[in-house]
Write a structure and sequence with these properties.
The complex is a heterodimer of chains A (about 290) and B (about 140).
Chain A: H1 4-59, E1 75-81, H2 91-105, E2 110-116, H3 118-126, E3 130-135, H4 144-159, E4 165-175, E5 178-187, H5 191-195, E6 208-210, H6 213-289
Parallel strand pairs in A: 1-2, 1-4, 2-3
Antiparallel strand pairs in A: 4-5
Chain B: E1 6-11, E2 16-22, E3 24-29, E4 32-36, E5 43-47, E6 50-56, E7 59-73, E8 76-86, H1 92-107, H2 113-131
Parallel strand pairs in B: 1-8
Antiparallel strand pairs in B: 1-2, 3-4, 3-6, 5-7, 6-7, 7-8
Helix pairs in contact in B: 1-2
Classes of the chains: A alpha/beta (about 290), B alpha+beta (about 140).
Amino acid sequence: MPNLRDIKRRIGSVKNTQQITKAMKLVAASKLRKAQEAILNERPYAVKLMEVLHHLAARCNKDLHPLLNQREEKKVLFIVVTSDKGLCGGFNGNVLKRLMAAVEENAGKEISVVAMGKKGRDICRSRGLKIEREYLNWGKDFEYQRAAEMAKFISEMFVDGKVDKVSLVYNEFKSVIQQEVILEQLLPIVPEDMATDSDGKMHDVDYIYEPDEESILETLLGRYMAVEIYRACLESTASEHGARMTAMDSATRNAGEMIDDLTLFYNRARQAYITKELIEVVNGAEALKG
Amino acid sequence: MAENKIQLSIVTPAKNVVNEEVDQVNVPGEDGDLGVLADHAPLITTLRSGPLSYEKGDDVVQMVVSGGYMEVTDNRVTVLAETAEFLDEIDRTRAEAAKADAEAKLAKADLSEDEFEATQLKLFRAIARLETPSKN
């Protein structure tokens, strides 16, 4: 016979958990709204910037800037964007799975990572990947300024020949309930991309450059890196809140189901207990009569 | 697209500020201000912090942008700026404070080159904001 008090306690604890998951869901939902706005506002800028850059880079001499340099890929750097906190479903797992697949593809090369977020760092560390730099607790109020700093650091590494290829791994925000893991090459800037630009006819146009190609390219490339990193971070933040909201929603629902089951179980046990007691009383009375 | 019109879009990391058909755009180019009319030759230029305006019929809309690029192709003008504000959005007190702050910083001699450049840009931004006529 199950102990009634134990079941009651169990129900209480599941109820507490449910309250927590419900609260987390609400918090995630309100954060999501903000993050979603940020990414949706930033995207057009990033897209336009890419367009300008591609127009420019397609026409420029590849030797004009060290960031356009294609080298043999011996040293590969991954920027892994994850969250600091868990409880958000497969959000981090998916990124890390993609990363590990990419690491396997690049077996034999020297691989290092820049880890953003505690979860990513922990996994990279346990897998023995070389961590170039780590950024923890970045999710809150991530500013463009910090992305710019990172961009500078990474381009310097690239120019100094410490890495030959840089890729970003992050969750792209598709919708509130959908994220997609993206692996995107950041450096060197991919030439195919430039060639297969949206409208091929533009490629013949000669631009007037002011002040001149090199200085525009110089500033544009610096900004491109920062904007891409910034965008990846915003995408990831929005995705994280979305993933957490979905995860917490189903956790709340599961807790509800569990409470229902337990309550049913509790009532059955209680009834059985009463029946047993009744039988005992009746038996006792019978015995006294005898 | 109507004849002799330019499709102007001004975007910043924070939002899509303007998306309109206009007659003329005047921007603060790195090497000097320039005006763009319809059928302008393709052009890419960097921008400094300063006043930007566009004309639509008889209306002239003034703004302040800070840093960025402008691309002109095929009667489309794309301005990518770090910030872009309409005149009534400018926070003058904040700009004053930023200016004073930047000036104080520049007065000190011990700045690294990067710091110096960043502070100088900050000063230019503040000045650009303050120089615009206040909206009556």
